[in-house]
């Protein structure tokens, strides 16, 4: 019929405007598309790998692999017992505390208790050699009003009284724990609010962006159907914090600083007898020069 013929012609015109697969798969277009697709739910660094092999779910502001699409349970069990299995735990939120050691320990003692296990002030944890875990409570409310479990690790001492502490929390608990930390340290938002817009992280990357843009414009002249190139930018932030929210707070009296390092510090878990071998083969120790 005439309507079907007109519809076929219309579809043909629409199809002609669609770029070929090679153009759609150009690196700069892919990055721009990926950034657009993760505005609501942040992707982990390993998202593409998981998306091809797992059923993905949207939880806590992230897009996470939930269950494998094929039967890999035996392979995972074999890797855990005989080889090495790697898990991406980067969706866990990292809260960084900086300041004088005594002041940090004094206030942190209010949200934990020795009855539940070893706390922040245990010497083996203070040295930075081991990671600790404990349950946090609202200030001076133990054994009531538990906030939830966390893990933590101190940066090894460098001779200064100022220390650095990383606390890892589940994204579902982050807002409550961050609010309690800001309260006990009396931290307020800094005068200059830092806006975490998606930006490139180095001058070298800026130069690479300019080169890609120029190539994209050149291709556009050759291919009229091509779209204008978009600069390659990185998403900074995480699923629990908006792109225009503050991520650092300071206490005016003590100088204690709380920073939200979520998705800035990645976290992986290695399970299995060959985990240490994998790390030694992958990482190389830096040569430390002492003056």
Kindly estimate the percentage of residues that lie in beta strands according to DSSP. 15-25%
Strand arrangement, largest sheet? 6-7-8-5-10-9
Helical stretch count?
Answer: 10
The low-confidence runs, each spanning 5 or more residues with pLDDT under 50, are 194-236
Helix content: 25-40%
Q: What's the β-strand tally?
A: 11
Provide a descriptive summary of the structure in words.
- The strands form three sheets. The chain has a six-stranded antiparallel beta sheet with strand order 6-7-8-5-10-9. Strands 1-3-2 form a three-stranded mixed beta sheet.
- It is 33% helix and 21% strand.
- The radius of gyration is 25 Å and the shape is globular.
- Strand 6 (132-137) and strand 7 form a beta hairpin.
- Among the domains are: 22-70, no CATH class; 93-189 and 247-262, Aminomethyltransferase beta-barrel domains (Alpha-Beta Plaits).
- It has helices at residues 2-17, 21-24, 27-37, 47-51, 73-82, 101-108, 123-126, 174-184, 203-222, 275-282; strands spanning 42-43, 54-59, 62-68, 85-88, 93-100, 132-137, 146-154, 162-169, 248-250, 257-260, 268-271.
- With 291 residues, the chain is an alpha+beta fold.
- InterPro entries: Pop1, Pop1_N.
- Residues 4-99 form the Pop1 N-terminal domain.
- One of its GO terms (biological process) is tRNA 5'-leader removal.
- It comes from Zosterops hypoxanthus.
- This is POP1 protein.
Keywords:
291 residues; alpha+beta; Alpha-Beta Plaits; six-stranded antiparallel sheet; three-stranded mixed sheet; 10 helices; 11 strands; 33% helix; Pop1_N; POP1 protein
């Amino acid at each position: 019929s005439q309507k079907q013929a007109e519809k076929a012609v219309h579809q043909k015109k629409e199809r002609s405007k669609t770029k070929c697969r090679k153009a759609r798969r150009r690196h700069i277009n892919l990055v721009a598309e990926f950034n657009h697709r993760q505005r609501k739910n942040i992707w982990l660094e390993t998202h593409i790998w998981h998306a091809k092999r797992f059923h993905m779910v949207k939880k806590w502001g992230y897009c996470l692999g939930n269950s494998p699409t094929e039967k890999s349970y035996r392979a995972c069990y074999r890797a855990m017992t005989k080889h090495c299995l790697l898990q991406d735990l980067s969706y866990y939120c990292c809260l960084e505390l900086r300041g004088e050691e005594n002041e940090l320990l004094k206030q942190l003692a209010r949200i934990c208790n020795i009855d539940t296990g070893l706390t922040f002030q245990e010497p083996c944890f203070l040295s930075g050699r081991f990671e600790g875990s404990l349950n946090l409570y609202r200030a001076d409310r133990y054994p009531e009003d538990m906030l939830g479990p966390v893990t933590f690790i101190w940066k090894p001492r460098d001779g200064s009284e100022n220390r650095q502490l990383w606390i890892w929390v589940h994204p579902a608990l982050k807002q409550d724990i961050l609010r309690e930390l800001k309260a006990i340290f009396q931290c307020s938002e800094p005068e200059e609010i830092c806006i975490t817009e998606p930006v490139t992280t180095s001058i070298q990357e800026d130069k690479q962006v300019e080169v890609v843009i120029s190539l994209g414009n050149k291709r556009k002249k050759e291919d009229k159907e091509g779209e204008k190139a978009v600069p390659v930018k990185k998403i900074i932030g995480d699923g629990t914090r908006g792109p225009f929210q503050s991520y650092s707070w300071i206490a005016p009296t003590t100088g204690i600083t709380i920073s939200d390092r979520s998705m800035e510090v990645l976290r992986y878990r290695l399970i299995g007898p060959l985990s240490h071998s994998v790390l030694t083969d992958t990482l190389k120790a830096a040569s430390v020069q002492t003056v």
